[in-house]
Amino acid sequence: MTSSEKYEELEEELKALYEDVNTKILHRIPKLSGEKKKLAIREVEKQIEDANIMIEDMELEAGHAPGAYRNPMTSRVRSYKRDFEKLRKDLGKPSGGPRVTFGREELFDSNPESDQKFRVNQATESLNRTSESIARSTRVAVETEQIGGEIIEDLGDQRESLIRTRDRLKETHQDLGRSRRILNSMAIRVATNKLLLLMIIVVELAILGAVVYLKFFKK
Questions:
Q1: How far apart are CA 173 and CA 6, in angstroms?
Q2: I want to staple 102 with a disulfide (CB 3.0 to 4.6 A). Which of 39, 77, 80, 92 is the partner?
Q3: CB atoms < 10 A from the CB of 12, how many?
Q4: What pLDDT, on a 0 to 100 scale, did the predictor assign at position 109?
């Protein structure tokens, strides 16, 4: 028993994968030859890689398990590592024919024509991958150039907008200056009018006082 449902699911998948790989190495691959054998070996290599990924996931699950479960789970992970390492080595052992090495892309065959065809196919695939990589790089470069052009255009528009805003601010400042001068002029006129009005009132009061004095007090 374990404390992780994911660990148990991975373990079940790993057991089934082990049985499948073991059967292919012991019974199926030795009976094949040529391209079929190469394809079968590649398939087994891929399965072993998948198994290693599953083992790493199980190891992570074991590391997070409580102490009572951790040691047994870790021990089983190590056991699975040894089992698949043995399968990997068995895949590289000779089996009544040319030696096949795990992880190599070139698998020797007794037929020179087939081997040459395999190398040509490998070279063609490599050339195709290179062409695709160049095409992707070209697309990225074109897209980058387009984005750069759009950015430059946007910056130009923003510059023009800032210039227009600056000009409007200058005009507003000038208008404020004119308004300030007009207000100052109006204030001076108002003060002058008040002073004249005050003088007129004083003169009228003086005249009124003189009239009253002459009429009532001087006889």
A1: 73
A2: 92
A3: 10
A4: 43
Structure tokens at 159: 């510059």
pLDDT at 55: 94
- CA 38/CA 160 separation, integer angstroms: 66
- Dihedrals φ, ψ of 102, to 5°? -60, 135
CA dihedral 16, 20, 26, 31 (to 10 degrees): 170
Q: What is the pTM of this model?
A: 0.42
Q: What is the mean pLDDT of each run of 10 residues along the chain (219 residues)?
A: 78 94 92 90 93 92 86 92 92 55 40 61 71 73 78 88 90 88 92 93 91 77
Both tokens of residue 194? 């008040």
CA distance 75 to 100: 31
> Quick one: which of 49, 76, 50 has its CA closest to 62?
76
Residues in the chain: 219
Q: From CA 123, how far away is CA 142, in angstroms rounded? A: 28
DSSP state of 29: G
Please choose, from the candidates 43, 44, 42, 75, the residue with its C-alpha nearest in 3D space to the C-alpha of residue 58.
Answer: 75
The DSSP string of 155-194 is HHHHHHHHHHHHHHHHHHHHHHHHHHHHHHHHHHHHHHHH
CB 91 within 8 A of CB 45: yes
